[in-house]
Amino acid sequence: MQPIKTYLNDKVLIKRVQYVLIFLFVCLIGLDIYLALDKIPNNTISNVILDKTDNGLFVLTYFWGAIAAHLFFTKKRPKVISPVIGTTAIIALALLIIFFNIEPKVALMFEDIKYNISIYSLSMLLGFVAGVVFWRQKHI
Amino acid sequence: MLEVQTVEHIVIAVVGFLILINILLNFNKVENDTINVILKNWAYHKYFFITFIWGVLGGHFFLGSPKPVFGSNWWLPVLIVIIIIVILILFGRKLDRDIVLKRRYQILLLITGVLYGHFFWSQRHIPNIEFPWAN
Question: Above 0.90 for ipTM, yes or no?
Fold first, then answer.
């Protein structure tokens, strides 16, 4: 990454990353509007993600919670866990969820409850708690 | 025309791209240029609507109540969420440049967003339920 440093100073690079993010987000919204209005049903981004979660990506909801804690729940006191160990722990937990195939087991526990979407709120919460423990950023 | 599978690939490509450039930005010499730091700074300063959107999308993508509050007007929750976000952006832009939001407001925004996505903008609405107050 040395060449970029020689061409740009810090502020310019940060501004560019911001523009890339805004550009990507606007593109995704535009794409989603197009997908909602075209002739193929159920191909919007929301539909694709919903299909994925219904087909058993418990880990996707886990990452939603972890990233929410990472971005929006900062830590004011000095960090106890180093970012490297924290990130490793977050990814290791996700791999454990995949490896032990947790989702059907949780779904089985909630079988009797008619409103069984709540299993996803469980993994969102799990992700958030894991994020709060291992993956918080420094406060501004 | 984009098939479902193409859309899946696009979503995976975007996420992969974000992870890749974040790794690059993390290991270059410039500080505070990673995506997580940029988003954190936005969310804690003027653009706290990001926290709300993250909550709304979580509720919309992953949860979702079966009973539609607005009946068959599927476009109404979309319109309302756009209006809320525009109001949040305009409100945020009026705030002082150096303002730092309290953490409890972040949690409040996140939870409000999830509840909105779950109850008002659900993808799991059972079709053809008619409510007296709808229509």
Answer: no
